[in-house]
Amino acid sequence: MAVIALKCPAIEVAVVDISVSRITAWNSDQLPIYEPGLDDVVKSCRGKNLFFSTDVEKHVAEADIIFVSVNTPTKTRGLGAGKAADLTYWESAARMIADVSKSDKIVVEKSTVPVKTAEAIEKILTHNSKGVNYQILSNPEFLAEGTAIEDLFAPDRVLIGGRETPAGQRAIKALKDVYANWVPEERILCTNLWSAELSKLAANAFLAQRISSVNAMSALCEATGADVAEVSHAVGKDTRIGHKFLNASVGFGGSCFQKDILNLVYICECNGLPEVANYWKQVIKVNDYQKNRFVNRIVSSMFNTVSGKKIAVLGFAFKKDTGDTRETPAIDVCKGLLGDKAHISIYDPQVTEEQIQRDLSMNKFDWDHPVHLQPMSPSSVKQVSVVWDAYEAAKGAHGLCILTEWDEFKNLDYKKIYDSMPKPAFVFDGRNVVNPQKLRDIGFIVYSIGKPLDSWLKDMPAVA
Residue 221 catalytic? Predict the structure, then answer.
């Protein structure tokens, strides 16, 4: 919305939420999320044509186009639990729109939703329409966190799905005209509703699949003495494959990949396509396998126990340049180590202690519900300390795990870290950030994902 306001000075944009604290933060100097470049965009438009408000009904009633970006969590109970999307928040938003609208509206799905959601929303709106006409569009978001502003300024494509009726086509054109203020026309794709809804799930599934493919190869590389970086470089040189998303790691995270694939799996099952569902399920299974494998490597390298040992964790966000910890592999790795009674010291430049404690004590999928519906202040995990400096985290630690590829981790003084650790000192690089040979020269025992194994590790079982 901030970028639309910046690029379309003639359009008034109001961002509304029922959460007073969140809107207060958006109106303050300290925005509630960290994203490179976002501050400048918000501060140049706020109060001119970009407004943040808790007066939801007033702004919805006045709007011509309403973007709905509410959470669509994975259901934790009932029909489709663990896979299906929970559309509670979507439905209440739609009912509120129907209650307060006096003029015709274009309602745009911005949240990632299961295929055919538009149909359900359409029914709610038309059955409560009181003579108001509604058009539903699907306009999924393809930005990536950490590069969101660049992605919005120059998107690969903008996808708009709508009904194939004259009124539906007019609605598509109205939204297309907004984006056309800065996006070249050939990059704005118009499709039917179901294609747009499914394209988002498909794009995320394909991206996650690439990560799981290279991670599966990383296990084979370790077993055979190949180097996954060399393999993925060679593979990526094929122009049909390309080099993006071929970095082996401890696993993918983020709010979308797992959720969207589970959703895709559920839709396939509901449509009687178990073979297709199982194919996509495997992408998540490999990701879970990779995280387990990493924890097993740590424990088996350290004489098969980390009980009572201090382990330093560098990085908690799911990737660099964001403070977002949703579904980050660090959660599963830390929980695995805590399960073996390790003491963990965590440093991440953008994640607060409160957030880390919340993530480590929350149940799966809880993060995707509004804060007031999340379990009350969780008991903090005693064996976890959060520090504000990598050297502090490493001091006295038997092992150092790198779980996020923050640039600053490349340039740490590893000699200083080595001197502050009991020996043998281990580095487990889950993001292939460090140069393993340089660290071995200092004296570390190094495990890098998908790289030829340290002789120390060769005798240790890969799966404890």
Answer: no
Contact predicate 201/115, CB 8 Å: yes
Distance of alpha carbon 267 from alpha carbon 117, whole angstroms = 12
**Would you say 204 and 245 are in contact if contact means Cβ atoms under 8 Å apart?**
no
Please report the pLDDT score of residue 30 as a whole number. 94
Q: What is the pLDDT, as a whole number, of residue 464?
A: 44
CA dist., res. 347 & res. 353, Å (int): 9
User: Which residue in the list 8, 45, 221, 256 is annotated as catalytic?
Assistant: 256
Low-confidence ranges of the chain (pLDDT < 70): 115, 370-380, 460-464
SS (H, E, C) the chain: CHHHHHHCCCCCEEEECCCHHHHHHHCCCCCCCCCCCHHHHHHHHECCCEEEECCHHHHHHHCCEEEECCCCCECCCCCCCCCCECCHHHHHHHHHHHHHCCCCEEEEECCCCCCCHHHHHHHHHHHCCCCCCEEEEECCCCCCCCCHHHHHHCCCCEEEEECCCHHHHHHHHHHHHHHCCCCCHHHEEEEEHHHHHHHHHHHHHHHHHHHHHHHHHHHHHHHHCCCHHHHHHHHHCCCCCCCCCCCCCCCCCCCCHHHHHHHHHHHHHHCCCHHHHHHHHHHHHHHHHHHHHHHHHHHHHCCCCCCCCEEEEECCCCCCCCCCCCCCHHHHHHHHHHHCCCEEEEECCCCCHHHHHHHHHCCCCHHHCCHHHCCCCCCCCCCEEECCCHHHHHCCCCEEEECCCCHHHHHCCHHHHHHCCCCCCEEEECCCCCCHHHHHHHCCEEEECCCCCCHHHHCCCCCC
Q: What is the pTM of this model?
A: 0.89
- Give the whole-angstrom CA distance, residue 349 versus residue 407: 11
CA distances from 201 to 122, 147, 209, 376, 428 (A): 21, 20, 12, 32, 33
